[in-house]
Design goal:
Blueprint (H helix, E strand, L loop, with lengths): L2 E3 H7 L13 E3 L1 E2 L10 E2 L13 H6 L4 E5 L12 E4 L2 H16 L2 E6 L4 H12 L5 E3 L9 H7 L7 E5 L7 H9 L3 E4 L7 H4 L2 H9 L10 E5 L3 H10 L4 E5 L10 E6 L2 E5 L7 E4 L6 H14 L4 H10 L8 E4 L4 E4 L6 H13 L5 E7 L8 H11 L7 E5 L4 H6 L9 E4 L2 H11 L4 E6 L7 H7 L6 E2 L2
Parallel strand pairs: 3-4, 4-5, 5-6, 7-9, 7-10, 8-9, 10-11, 11-12, 17-21, 18-19, 18-21, 19-20
Antiparallel strand pairs: 1-2, 13-14, 14-15, 16-17, 16-22
Helix pairs in contact: 3-5, 4-10, 4-11
Protein name: UDP-N-acetylmuramoyl-tripeptide--D-alanyl-D-alanine ligase
Family: Belongs to the MurCDEF family. MurF subfamily.
Keywords: ATP-binding, Cell cycle, Cell division, Cell shape, Cell wall biogenesis/degradation, Cytoplasm, Ligase, Nucleotide-binding, Peptidoglycan synthesis
Length: 467
C-alpha cells in the first residue's frame, strides 16, 4: 500500500495545501470508510448526493487515522486533532493521488473493460502473470471512479504488473479510468446490452468502452473481439500506433480458439486450429474460452511461456458468485448471482445445458436491470430462447423477470414455470422440487441479492468448488 509523508502526498495532488509543520508525518494506506479505517491511514471523506464523508471525520480519528484530505468548502470541526490536506474536491484528489502513485511505481498495467467477462479475464490473467511477476489485481467490485484509485493505492511498492478492471456505465468513465492507470495493455472483452439504460444503444456502449485506449501506451497492446463490427470498423478508422490483436470465430482474427471439450470439470481448447498447445481451465461454460484466450494474448505480450500460461490458468484465484458450482447436500447449485444481462444469462443457460449428469435442471432468474426502454422485450426474449429439453423448472422473481416466464417455450410444462415477487415464497416452493440429483442455476442483477437463495439451498458444511 502507499506509504508517503504528507509533504509527498501534497505534491501528488493538484491544488492541495498542507501546513508545513505536518510535512514529515507518514501515512500508511488510504481509506474512504471511517468504519474500517486502520491506524496510520489517510482518511479520504467522499461527498455524494445523499452522503458526506466529512461528517465522519471524528469516527475516522477514533479508528486511528493519521491525517485526512479535506474539501476546502467544508467547515472544519474545532475538535479535529489530526492534520488536514485541503483540496478542491476529495474524489478528484484521490484520483490524482492514485495517478501519481501508479506513475511512481513504474509498474506495467493491464486495463480491462467490457459488458461481460471482465472479472473472469482479470482473474485468469493475474493467475498467469503471477507465475513470473509480482502481480496485483482489482479485488471485489472496486472497478469504478473511486474503486480504481483505491485499487492502485493498495498495491505494494514492489509490484511489477497490475490487472485493473474498469466498470463503465457512462461516457467519460473509461477515459477517466484510463487516464489514472495509463495502461500498457487495454482489453475490451465484448459489447453487450449492459448499461443501455444510460448509454441507450450498443453503438454508444462501444464508443464509451473504446475510451479505454485514449491513454494507452503508444507502444502497448489493444485486444478486442474482432467479430464485433462496432469495434472493428472504428479501430480500422483510427489506424493506431499501438499494436492490435483480436479474438473471435472468424479466421481473420489473431486468435480463433477451437473448443475441444466442455463439462463440469471445465473446458479445454486451442488458440487456433493449427496450434499444438492445448489449454485447460477449471471454469464452467464454453464462453470462458474467449476470456482465457484474451488473458493468454495479454500474457504473451509480457513474454510468459506456454508452460507458465497453463500453470497460471490452473492456479488462478477466481472471484465468487460467478459460475460458481457448489456441491451441497440438498442439491448442486450453479451460483451466477452477482450480475445479469441478456448475454450473460444466455451464457449461463448454455453452461447449465452442458452439465449432463443431473436428472433435474432448475432455473431461477431475477430481473436484469439497466436495460433501458427495451427491458421488457429483452426479458421475454430470454424465455423464448430457452431450450425446453434442458429445463425442468423455471422460477422467476421480480416485475421484469416475470416476462422471462411469459416468453418461455410452451414445451416447458406451464405448471413448472412460476413467477414471484416475494423471495421467501420462491424459496419455499423451490425447496419442494429440488432433489439430490438436481442442479439449480441462480442468476439476477446484483440489486436482487439472490445469494440469499443460494445460501438457503446450500449446506455451509459441504465442500464447494469455485470453478
Amino acid at each position: 500500500m502507499i506509504r508517503r509523508n504528507l509533504k509527498e502526498i501534497e505534491q501528488m495532488i493538484k491544488n492541495s495545501k498542507l501546513n508545513k509543520e505536518y510535512e514529515d508525518i507518514i501515512i500508511n494506506g488510504v481509506s474512504t470508510d471511517s468504519r474500517n479505517i486502520c491506524p496510520g491511514q489517510l482518511f479520504v471523506p467522499i461527498k455524494g448526493d445523499k452522503f458526506n464523508g466529512h461528517n465522519f471525520i471524528l469516527d475516522a480519528i477514533k479508528g486511528g487515522a493519521t491525517a485526512a484530505l479535506w474539501n476546502k468548502n467544508e467547515p472544519i470541526p474545532t475538535d479535529i486533532n489530526i492534520p488536514l490536506i485541503l483540496v478542491e474536491d476529495t474524489l478528484t484528489a484521490i484520483q490524482d493521488l492514485a495517478r501519481s502513485y501508479a506513475s511512481q511505481l513504474g509498474m506495467k498495467i493491464v486495463g480491462i473493460t467490457g459488458s461481460n467477462g471482465k472479472t473472469s479475464t482479470k482473474d485468469l490473467l493475474a493467475g498467469i502473470l503471477s507465475t513470473k511477476y509480482k502481480t496485483g489485481k482489482t479485488m471485489g467490485n472496486l472497478n469504478n471512479h473511486l474503486g480504481v484509485p483505491l485499487t492502485i493505492l493498495s498495491f505494494e511498492e514492489d509490484i511489477e504488473i497490475a490487472v485493473i478492471e474498469m466498470g463503465i456505465s457512462e461516457f467519460g468513465e473509461a477515459d477517466l479510468l484510463s487516464s489514472i492507470a495509463n495502461p500498457d495493455v487495454a482489453i475490451i472483452t465484448n459489447i453487450g446490452e449492459a448499461h443501455l439504460e444510460t448509454l441507450y444503444t450498443r453503438e454508444n456502449i462501444a464508443k464509451a468502452k473504446l475510451e479505454i485506449i485514449n491513454h494507452l501506451n503508444p507502444e502497448g497492446l489493444f485486444i478486442y473481439p474482432g467479430d464485433e463490427p462496432l469495434l472493428k470498423n472504428k479501430i480500422e478508422e483510427l489506424n493506431p500506433k499501438f499494436k492490435v490483436e483480436t479474438f473471435g470465430q472468424e479466421s481473420y482474427n489473431t486468435y480463433c480458439p477451437k473448443l475441444i471439450n466442455v463439462g463440469e470439470s471445465g473446458v479445454s481448447f486451442k488458440l487456433n486450429e493449427s496450434s499444438h498447445h492445448i489449454f485447460n481451465i477449471g471454469l464452467l461454460g464454453k464462453h470462458q474460452v474467449y476470456n482465457a484466450t484474451t488473458a493468454i494474448a495479454a500474457a504473451k505480450y509480457f513474454d510468459i511461456s506456454f508452460e507458465d500460461i497453463q500453470e497460471g490458468l490452473k492456479k488462478a484465484d477466481i472471484t465468487g458468485m460467478r459460475n460458481h458450482l457448489i456441491h451441497a447436500k440438498k442439491c448442486t447449485i450453479l451460483d451466477d448471482s452477482y450480475k445479469s444481462n441478456p448475454a450473460s444469462v444466455l451464457a449461463a443457460l448454455d453452461t447449465l445445458y452442458s452439465l449432463d449428469k443431473y436428472s433435474r435442471k432448475i432455473v431461477v432468474l431475477g430481473d436484469m436491470l439497466g436495460l433501458g426502454d427495451e427491458e421488457i422485450s429483452m426479458h421475454r426474449e430470454i424465455g423464448e430462447k430457452m431450450d425446453p429439453s434442458q429445463i425442468d423448472y423455471l422460477f422467476t422473481i421480480g416485475p421484469l423477470a416475470k416476462h422471462i416466464a411469459e416468453g418461455a417455450n410452451p414445451m416447458i410444462p406451464r405448471n413448472n414455470i412460476k413467477s414471484y415477487m416475494d423471495k421467501k415464497e420462491l424459496i419455499n416452493d423451490l425447496n419442494k422440487v429440488v432433489t439430490k440429483d438436481s442442479v439449480v442455476l441462480v442468476k439476477a442483477s446484483r440489486d436482487l441479492h439472490l445469494e440469499d437463495i443460494v445460501n438457503t439451498l446450500k449446506d455451509y458444511d459441504s465442500p464447494s468448488k469455485a470453478i
